[in-house]
Structure formats: C-alpha cells, structure tokens
Amino acid sequence: MARAINRIERHEPTEAEVQAESLTQIIKALSDNKEAILKTLDIIKELDQAGMLDIAGALLKNRTEVGVHGVNLINSLNIPPLIRNAFTLSQMVGKIDPLEMDRLLNALGNGLSHLGEMDPAHQKYGDHRDNEPPGMLHLLKTMRDPDVRTTMAFGLQFLKSMGGELNKPKPDPSEVFSDPKRKESETHKEV
Amino acid sequence: MKMDGQENIVIHVDGQSVVAQPGMTIVQAVNTAPDLYIPQICYNEQLGPINTCDTCMVEVNGELVRSCSTVITPGMNISTQTPLVKEAQQESMSRILRNHELYCTVCDNNNGNCVVHNTTEKLGIEHQTYPFRNKPYEIDNTNPFYRYDPDQCILCGRCVEACQDLQVNETLSIDWSREQPRVVWDDDVPIDQSSCVSCGHCVTVCPCNALMESSMLGEAGFMTNIDSKLMEPLIDLTKAVEPGYSGIFQISEIEASMRNSRIEKTKTVCTYCGVGCSFEVWTKDRHILKIEPSIDAPVNGVSTCIKGKWGWDFVNSEERLTRPLIRQGDRFVESTWDEALALIAEKLGGIKAQHGSDSIAYIASSKCSNEENYIFQKFARSIMGTNNVDNCSRYCQSPATSGLMRTVGMGGDSGTMVDIQQSELVIIVGANPAESHPVLATRVKRAHKLHGQKLIVSDIRKNEMAERADLHLHPKPGSDLVWLSAVTKYIIDQGWEASSFLDTRVEGYEEYRESLAPYTLDYAEQVSGLTREQLIRTAEMIHESGSVCILWAMGVTQHRGGTDTSTAICNLLLATGNFGRPGTGAYPLRGHNNVQGACDFGTMPSYFPGYEKVTDEAVRSRYEQAWGVQLPAEPGLDNHEMVDAIEEGALKAMYLFGEEMAFVDSNSNFVEEMFGKLEFFVVQDIFFSRTAQFADVVLPASPSLEKDGTFTNTERRIQRFHQVFEPMGESRPDWRIIQDVANALGANWNYTHPGEIMEEAASLAPLFAGVRYDRLEGWNSQVWPVQPDGSSTELLYTEEFAFPSGKARLFPVSWTLPYEPEAEYDLHLNNGRLLEHFHEGNMTYQSQNIRHKVPSTWLEVSPELAAERGIETGAKVRLVSPYGQAKLSVVVTDRVKGKELYLPMNTQHAGEAINRLTSSHTDKITHTPSYKEISVRMEVLEDRGVSPLPQVNHRFAQRRPQISVRVEDKWKRQDYEPIADTIRKERAQYGQSH
C-alpha cells in the first residue's frame, strides 16, 4: 500500500567528503608522475625567483587590456609593414636558385678576400703603388682584364633585368595586400 | 537518383569519361567522380540548385554555364580547369568574400566543414578582387537557439531554400530590393518574433558562420572567446601582415585540427518522435556544442525539428536521478545498487513464490532501445514466467497495428518516407504531423508545394496541414469510419475500384462490398456532418491519383472504434489498389521514437519478438530451447487489464521502466489510486517521475546519449545510436539494470554490450534475421523484414501480403457510436501534441530556451465559444468531466471551431493534465484508451488575463511563402553583372580576346 510521496532524502556529500575525494585523486596523480612533478617544481622555483611568475600572472589577469595595448604598440612601431617586408624578402630569397647563389657568393667572397691588398691610407692599390690612386688610363687598362670584364657583364645583365621589372606598370595594391580594407573600392556591386 | 528503364549516358569532363544517369545536372554527375572537383557553395544535394553563388561555373562549348542547373546531354564536353573557368571562379569568390570576412582561426565555425573556407582554400584564392565591407545591419541575437550575423552572410540563399522549400515553414527570404540585401524573417522582424519554428534547417545548411547555433559561440574554438575589444584589432593585424590566404589558411587548419582532439562527434538517433532522425552530437566534455545533421542520414538528411536540434539540455539536468531510491516511511532514501537489487529480488521473488508468476506485471518503454525491450520481455517470460508484459503502444497505435494485421498482415508502415514523398495523393486522417512528426511533415509539405502532390486532411482542428490541404474535411468527432466507408462505397459504385488487383491479390471482396451497403452518402452526411460534395470530391481525388498514401494517428486510434477505423482505412486502400507499389500504402505514424521497436521486440502480452504468437507451440519451443526454460503459453495482461487486475487484487507487483504511466494513461486519478494498491512497485527512469512517487524502489537509468543501442522508427527502419557521455552519477543504461535485476533473481546473464542482445534477438526472430551491428555502422540502417544476408524490405507487399495465402483480406467493419456524454458536458475536448514539447515534458521543459517559446500548455477555445462565454485569451477556466477536472489558461484561436476545444497533453502539472479528464473507456479490440472521446463543461474562473503563450511564439506570426530565394530578383538588379560579362570586359581592358 503506497501513497504518492515526493520527498527524497538525498545524500549530499559534505564539503569534507568532496575534498577528501579530490585529495585522493590528486595524491594518486602526483605519485604516479613523481619525476615529472619534481622537475616541474624545480623549473617553477627558478621562474619564481626570476620574477617571471609575477609577470606572467599579471599579464594573464589583464590579458584583454594588455592585448589591446600590444596591438597598438605593434601598430605604432610600424611593425606590420616590417613583418610584411620580412615575408616579401623571405619569399624573394626563396625564389633564388641556390646554385646561382652559391656561385655568386663564392665570387663575392673571393672578391672580398683580396680587398686586404687595398689600403688607400697607405697608398696601397693592389699591384699599383703610387702616391695617387690609379689614373683613368690605368683603370681603363685594368678593364681589359677578362675577370673584370666578366664581373661588369654580370652587373649589366642584372641592371637590364631589374629595369625590365621596374618598367612594368605599378602593381595593384590587391596583389600586394590581401587585406581588403586597405584598398580603394572603385565599383560598388552589392550582390 | 536511379532512374529505372533509362540507359546511362557518358559525358567527358576534362578529357575523362564520366558515366551518369540522364536528367542529372553537371554537378551531380561530376560529384560521382572522386577525382574531379567543381566548387559549389550554394548547391546542396538535398536542396537542389539555387543559382546564386556562381562558383560552379564550368566551360561547355566555350561558354560559361552553371553546372548546378545545367542538365547533361550525351557526349557533352565539360572543362573545369580552363583559364576562363579560373577567372570565373576568382570573380565569383571575390563577390562572395566581399560579403564575408575571413577570420577563420578565431571563428567558431572553423571545424573542417566550413564550405566557404574549404572552397576558398581548394581554389587557391590568394587575394580577393573586391574589398570586404560591413553591411549596415546589427547581429540578430533575439532567438535563443541561433543568431544571424548579416556581416558574414554571403547571400547564397541556402537558408531561404531550406526554410521555404524543404522545411516549408516559409519564414525566411532575401530582400533583394535593398541597397545591401540581407536575409529577413517574415516582414523583417526580429527572429524571435517571427514565424520561425526554430527547426534549425537554416543553421544546418548555412555554408559559413552567418547562421550559428548559439551554443557554439565562444565555445568551439580555442581562441573564439577572446573579448571583442581585442578580437577586432587582432583580426585587422592578422590581415595587415598576411602574405596571402593560403598562408593564413594553414594557421586556421592547424587550429581546426587541434579542435578534433577536444570536440567529440557521435552519431545518435533522436528520441522525440517516431520519424527517427539521426545526426551527430558535437560535445566538449559534457557540454553539447550542437546537433549536426548530415545529408547522409537515411530518414532526415539535413532536417530536424526544434526538439531534435535543441532539446537535449535534460541530459545534464540536476534533476536527473543518480542513485537508487528506496521508500522508507514517508520519504525516499538513497541506497546503493546492491541494496536496491537485493530488495527487488526479495520482494519480487517472494510475491512470485506466494501468488504465482502472473501476480506481477511488467511495463516496457517505447523510449528505450530494441535491445532493452528484448531483454525485458525475456526477463518477464523466461525468469519470471509470465506474459504480463506490455508497452505504451497500447496508448496510441495498437489499434492501427491491429487493423493492419487484419487486412495486410504486418503491423508496420507499408513503405518509407520515399513513398510518402512520391505519392500523388496523401490523405491524413486524425493526425497533425506538422507538430507531432515534424520532419515527416516537411516531406509532404515539400511535395505538395513543389511537385504537385495533392493533400486531403481530415481533422476536427484546422492544424497546419489542414491549412495547406487541397481539401480539409472536418467530420464530427469519431465519425471517420463512416465517411471512409462511404467514400469506398461511392468509388465501388462508380466502378472505380481496382478490379484486377482485387481479383488477383485480395480475398473477401464480395462479402466486403455487401457490408458497405449502409454507408450511403446520405447516411455519411448525416453521421459525419461532411457534405455530399466533400465526400464525392474525396472519392474523385482518390480515383484521379495514380498512387495514394493514407497517414493516420491518434485521432483515429484513440476511439472505442479505433481498430475498426484503422481497418476501414486499409479496406479503402485495398479497394483502390493502393498497396505494394511505390507511393502507396498505409502509414500509422508512430508517436515515440521506439514504439515500433518496443512492439517489434516483444514487449507485448501475446507476441514474441517479430510478431510471433506466444500461443504458437513451434515458436514457443524455439524460444524455450534457446533460453533453456519452460515458457507460459497463455497471453498475458495488457496495460489496461493490468490496472483492472490491481483493482481486482490479482496483480500484486509491477516493474516499469521509462514510462510515465501515472500521467499518460487515461483516467489518471483511477490509475494513481491503483498504483497505491500495489504491494511492490519498481520504477526505473531518468527522472523522478510522477509514477515514481508510487514506487517502492526507484532505479536511476541513463538516457540514449549515455548508452548504445538501436531504435526502430515508424518506417520499420532500425538505426544505431552510440554512447556520447558516461552515465551520470551512478545511473546505468536500462539494459544493464534489467540484467542486474534478472541476475539478482538468478538469471546468470552476462551481456556485455547491446550488440550481443541484438545478435540473440536476430537469431530467434526471423523478421530480423539479418540485423547485425556491423551492418548498422555509420549512417547505415536496415528496414525489416531483414533477410539473413542483411538486405532490407523498404516497400512491403510488392509480391504478396503477409498471410499464408499471400492475399490481402478485406475485413468488414461497422461503426461504433462514440461515447455519448450527459447533457451537462456540452463541449468536446480534443487533445494532442505540441511541436515544442515531448510527451509529459520531463525532457523538453528542462530546456530554458524551449520554455522561452512555450512555457506551459494551454486550452484552445474557438472565437465563437469565447464570445458566447465572454472570455479572452488569458482567461482561466476549469474543465470538468465525469472523471476529474483541470484548471487551464485559454488561447482563443480559429484553429478550433464551435464547441470543440483542444488541449495539448504536454504538461508537467497534474492540475493541467488531460488525463485528469479522460475516461477508462477503450478501443473494443486493443484496449487502447479512447482519449479522444471526452466531453466536458467549462467553468470560467477569470475572464481575461496574461496569455499562456508568449508573443515570441511562431503561432502569432505571419508566414511569407515564396518559391526558393527568387534569384531572378538578384539578376534584375542594376548592379548585377553576369560573371561572363565581367570577365569579357576585363579581358578587353587587358587586350585579350575572349
């Protein structure tokens, strides 16, 4: 014979019971990972002594405000173009054939290694020794040297190609900047 | 997509041959070839072509065409990679990205499935031609379930297509007339105040983050809950330094892959009605991020309703039962499982020993799995030695099953949703699928709106389906059998019956034809109140249609003549040859997610699993052999008889799981009184239900999201659901509890997974011979009868009916006059369901957001009656029947007429419950309570007051029907230029020829 009842005596775990349960779990996790925990504590100790934890704590607690200032700082230091230029440069360097680069740098290195023979302060101009730098005639004579002519041909070829690129029309900003907000919109299609 | 009788054709795509079916569009054909790719942002297979995004352009004969809407022709040459196509893609994507800011890494939609992100990346778009610009509209956060961000909206129109033509709620449109178009709700009202039913279609199909589930926001990503103060400058900074989209996409891809490790995606099957929608649940720990439907889901594809898409908060409710409870004096005390099980074993064992096996009864759950129902009936029969086991189909669809068994031989829907969808004429009798089976209703609404399907609705209430119907019949309550029979007679009298079908496939025609003699049009007019013209028009529409499906539910079954009316429906279909062909058949719409499966797997007093009779010697010996016991040979008590047996003193104890019997059985005052008389009562549930208040032991169970198993939907389709969460607290899956109880009573079972239970059931019940978990992986499903090789039977009776002769049986029936009330009970009280809540609401009322839309039930009163009684919406009234009373708030609406009232059953308050008013009268055959035969009188307590239904409910708003997104209006705009024209101009500018 049962009448309807809706009183339920639930056993609500006391705070002490909840705490004891949590502690058991924590102690088990600690003892299972003893080595790693001890090493981590060591690192934390050093970080604390260096004041890093205070800094990190303050940064995290104020992350939104700090973040906004950070973005402002980045903008005011003109860092976005710097990053963009870095990307562009790295893309440019990435396009160069490593073999060509190797040859060019070897040649450059070789050129540089002989610069020690030049010292205008002591009137040293390679194999030309005089109180004066070499005269025009002497320089022209030097140009007959095949090595010098090779370098000049390289330089002229470089200038020609570079000029060819510069003579192209100025690029559309959209091809440089993907951020659409930066560029002017000439048409106003809405659909 | 298979088109029988037509030869496949070959097309050439980038030089590769692709075999496709005629009638396919280019995109459909190309999508079948795994190594070919056409971008498609607005196109979705289920929605069809929308023509707005222009990303799917390909080249055919030197011209650009939209591949989504261009139908293939034999030998067609298609190029997807030419410079022209590439330029078109750049142009179309630029137009899209002008409307959509790419901040993927900090976007909650960056989960690997963002269509806009994936397409931009796949096409290698590095820069956009037109700059992004904000639109002059605010984010709409008014609807608690989802939000719309116009700034991110690419105006593809998928949401509009889904709302207008798939869900067919007709709320969304794109206003192309504005300078900057946007999606608008109704007449441009805030979402919350619109006619939106929060079904979730629009959010599911949105290809980006413009429409998002609110539960995802700030939760899905690692960096998405950064304060907007910081977020915006960060986005700008990222844009300022990024060298191109490919680089930035790599970062968002890394973030998306990181999300994989903390967002779980688990397939489940919805538990809110018999349609059987399946989808993924996305979770982060116990937080439900969202429900993600898939186009691959066999029943629903991308469709859901408000409950399935958003109604899962109950799983984490603090009100969940987490430990067993034992009655001690005037209270329940928590106990251990061992204590509870020992007590159950002692009491049930003792009562069985003292009073015999049949002194205990078992009520199973139509909300629980096939495996749980199987193991429960096995427990009742093999361990406890009784057939006293039943489930709640007794309250709803048993009469339908019974009518089908009489006429065609199988107790299930004749076909699947595909048949309902492709039928030329759908007749709905006494059902409101728009609220009770929402996703199934969408298929009818879509076919009716777009594909010329005809619709007849017979209902005493002007529900949504009735509003949409070509013909709405409003018969007098309980008179369906008469008009159905009169229409059948008229068809036969006109010589429109399917003679050759009747000759070759049906028995008993002559006798049946004679039995129709009383059902003249005159008689039907008089009894049903329908006009002669309506009856003839119905007959003509059936006659003119090549295929007819009849859908019915509780408006038919919950009457004293419920089985007979169900039989009359089958007779009509047989007489017109509407069985065994695609697009035809009888479809009783199952109410709960597993009503079908609970019956299928044997929780019925006279049937073993698979509808084999317990009285059949051969069947019984098969189970006796398998289970190693003697089994009772006599059918047991059904639900209704159980309650009577308590009164008589024959029934001493009961074990019930997942069923709110104290609330949902009719004449609940009486049922509760009977529960009080039980010597011992075990109730197993996820919540402390009203029924549990009468229990001696309450066992905490786990809902579907905390266990594995299968459900069977109204189509007879078996689908697998998977465990999402660990059971809460000490709750356990029902199958495990039933096994624990059985073992406490000496069963010694050792099932470790529901798959093992299904294996056993399949080995014993021939109907499920080929059902196996490995065949139900992913989105796979099986429709019974399942052959040993695993093959399904989608459409029944194509060759023969399920009788030994192979022929169907016309079964003469006569009309049972509905219960005649005494004169003082002058109002008819209809009852049923609400879209927003499920059953008595112990799950859906747990959702704060659903409560925001519908906080409680209400009583619908017609304007005529309201005027007569001098009441308005918000009035408080008391309804009194001979069996009890209820106090309710009124909504005045023309959905009901004259002296007919409507009361949704979905309440948690006993004082508002329909079953305080219902009687103990039942269907003559099946003992299903005649819930629909109630008359009441109404006492006005307050003549006005606050509306029980808030203004933010869709029922107050006006829909805006249109076909699709009206892309023609976009094309007519001054600033719209076809992609091909734009490219031609650009080429001319750069001196190239087209």
| Shape designation of chain A | elongated
The beta-strand count of chain A equals 4
CATH T-level topology of the domain at 325-396 and 595-677 and 706-783 in chain B: Rossmann fold
Tell me what portion of residues of chain A adopts beta-strand conformation. Answer: under 5%
Largest sheet of chain B: 7 strands, mixed
Total count of strands of chain B: 37
Low-confidence stretches of chain A: 177-186
Cα Rg of chain A: 36 Å
TL;DR?
Chain A is mainly alpha-helical and 191 residues long.
What does it look like?
The complex is a heterodimer of chains A (191) and B (994). Helix content of chain A is 64%, strand content 4%. The N and C termini of chain A lie far apart (73 Å). With 191 residues, chain A is mainly alpha-helical. In chain A, strands 2-3-4 form a 3-stranded antiparallel β-sheet, with no helix packed on it. In chain A, a hairpin with a 2-residue loop joins strand 3 and strand 4 (128-129). Chain A has a domain at 33-95. The relative contact order of chain A is 0.02. Chain B has 994 residues and is α/β, with parallel strands linked by helices. Among the domains of chain B are: 325-396 and 595-677 and 706-783, Rossmann fold; 398-588, Dimethylsulfoxide Reductase, domain 2 (3-Layer(aba) Sandwich), CATH 3.40.228; 827-956, Beta Barrel (Barwin-like endoglucanases). Chain B is 31% helix and 16% strand. In chain B, the strands form 10 sheets. In chain B, strands 14-13-27-26-25-15-16 form a 7-stranded mixed β-sheet. Chain B has a 6-stranded mixed β-sheet with strand order 33-35-34-37-32-36. In chain B, strand 15, helix 10 and strand 16 form a beta-alpha-beta unit. In chain B, helix 2 crosses helix 33, helix 16 (480-493) packs antiparallel against helix 19 (521-528) and helix 16 (480-493) runs parallel beside helix 22 (562-575). Chain B is globular. The model of chain B has no long low-confidence stretch (mean pLDDT 94). Strand 1 (8-9) of chain A pairs parallel with strand 14 of chain B.
